[in-house]
């Protein structure tokens, strides 16, 4: 690996992955962040990396993965040998309200990348396309059982259906044309730089502002939580050692009901930033803000990943335990006020024209 194209590198996991690769691995080559900067793309999330490594080991290309000319020229200009494909529309609630962008980016965008990669690499040795996907493609579990790599696909939201389609296309490009691919299906991530539309950052920021904490349905839906850095190290292990054509499940082995998560966020906040000292709370406790609301349509009940394959075959394992990593995450949101403020007032959308050096 010399030149890695990371799609969606201004998003939550992509930005963490770029930081991980450049600062925590022995990789000495170049990382090219290819991102359209949708509402979820935020260059503040890679600002430190741009300042330290921009124009040397880190480059940014603002473009759409559906734009085949731009994808092809980027592959060529940077002599890309590895693609790590994170870019996607990623929020289930938004996919219910408006599925079109999910079809465009997640299906057509992935197709465009595959087509351009095949055309550019033309069977070159050492090239690799890693596709980052989700456990949601497997559907919803009852109270027992796990998702395995062999579990039949049963996506149930526009988001998970679009991700399932993209997974099938990636496999088809391997089987039909021999494109060197790997796929990972991961459970719910949390950690720094996550856009506050997802459960954990939404609850942290709403609580600090004294706003309601909306829990869908009965709050007993279960997700399997993984700290984002553990996802990054898993993807890295697949890039280094994963077998071409294989799929690897990645998970936290950490099942929690949503209501448990929200209560834990409230109790950590009481210690780190007490409600009694927060004027927005007006004498309430954070947990007083918990509000049960109408359920998400088609809300999957339970996800739980079996990730024995990546553990046994590649020697990967999780390094972070839930309570300490959640505390670390909450402290990050408390101490990164300007990142939060720029999202709240929308100024993160203007950072490119104001500050970007054009590297
Ligand atoms: P995110 O929404 O935070 O970031 C997505 C990024 O993709 C943004 O920077 C956005 O600007 C970019 N993007 C969107 N459409 C684009 C397009 N057409 N062209 C170029 N860039 C585009 O998402 P995330 O939570 O970081 O998720 C990253 C990937 O991981 C997704 O593929 C998602 O399906 C998958 N995944 C996420 C989780 C999770 O818990 N967040 C878990 C498993 C898998
Ligand atoms: O499982 C992996 C998936 O995890 C990823 O593929 C997705 O990109 C990612 O968004 C995430 O999907 P979820 O729908 O599970 O994440 P979300 O944070 O939106 O919701 C987590 C759970 O919390 C879910 O059961 C819905 C519930 N929820 C969510 C929000 C935003 C609430 O109860 N209230 C809320 O306000």
CATH fold category name of the domain at 3-190 and 228-253 and 301-321: Rossmann fold
Structure classification: alpha/beta
Number of beta strands: 12
CATH superfamily of the domain at 3-190 and 228-253 and 301-321: NAD(P)-binding Rossmann-like Domain
List of distinct ligands in this structure: nicotinamide-adenine-dinucleotide, 2'deoxy-thymidine-5'-diphospho-alpha-D-glucose
Number of helices: 13
**Which sheet architecture does the biggest sheet show?**
7 strands, parallel
- Structural shape: globular
Helix content: 40-55%
Question: H/E element string?
Answer: EHEHEHEHHEHEEHEEHEEHEHHHH
CATH architecture of the domain at 3-190 and 228-253 and 301-321: 3-Layer(aba) Sandwich
CATH class of the domain at 3-190 and 228-253 and 301-321: Alpha Beta
The CA-CA distance between the termini, in Å, is: 22 Å
């Amino acid at each position: 690996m010399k030149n890695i194209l990371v799609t969606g590198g201004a998003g939550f996991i992509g930005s963490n992955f770029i930081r991980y690769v450049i600062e925590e691995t022995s990789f000495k080559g170049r990382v090219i962040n290819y991102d359209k900067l949708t509402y979820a793309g935020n260059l503040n999330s890679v600002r430190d990396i741009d300042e330290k490594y921009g124009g040397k080991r880190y480059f940014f290309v603002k473009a759409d993965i559906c734009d085949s000319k731009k994808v092809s020229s980027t592959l060529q200009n940077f002599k890309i040998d590895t693609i790590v494909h994170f870019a996607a529309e990623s929020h289930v609630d938004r996919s219910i309200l408006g599925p079109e962008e999910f079809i465009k980016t997640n299906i057509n965008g992935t197709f465009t990348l595959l087509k351009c990669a095949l055309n550019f690499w033309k069977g070159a040795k050492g090239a690799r396309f890693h596709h980052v996907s989700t456990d949601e493609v497997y559907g919803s579990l009852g109270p027992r059982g796990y998702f395995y790599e062999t579990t039949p696909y049963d996506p149930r939201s526009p988001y998970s259906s679009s991700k399932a389609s993209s997974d099938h296309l990636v496999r088809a490009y391997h089987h039909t044309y021999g494109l060197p691919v790997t796929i990972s299906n991961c459970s719910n991530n949390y950690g720094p730089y996550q856009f506050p539309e997802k459960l954990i950052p939404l609850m942290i920021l709403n609580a600090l502002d004294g706003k309601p904490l909306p829990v869908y349905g009965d709050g007993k839906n279960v997700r399997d939580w993984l700290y984002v850095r553990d996802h990054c190290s898993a993807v890295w292990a697949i890039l280094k050692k994963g077998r071409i054509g294989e799929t690897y499940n990645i998970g936290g082995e950490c099942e929690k009901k949503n209501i448990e998560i929200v209560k834990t966020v409230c109790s950590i906040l009481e210690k780190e930033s007490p409600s009694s000292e927060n004027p927005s709370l007006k004498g309430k406790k954070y947990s007083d803000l918990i509000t049960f609301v109408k359920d998400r349509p088609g809300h999957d009940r339970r996800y739980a990943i079996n990730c024995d394959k990546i553990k046994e075959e590649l020697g990967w394992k999780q390094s972070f335990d839930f309570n300490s990593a959640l505390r670390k995450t909450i402290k990050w949101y408390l101490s990164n006020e300007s990142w939060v403020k720029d999202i709240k007032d929308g100024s993160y959308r203007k950072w490119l024209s104001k500050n970007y050096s054009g590297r």
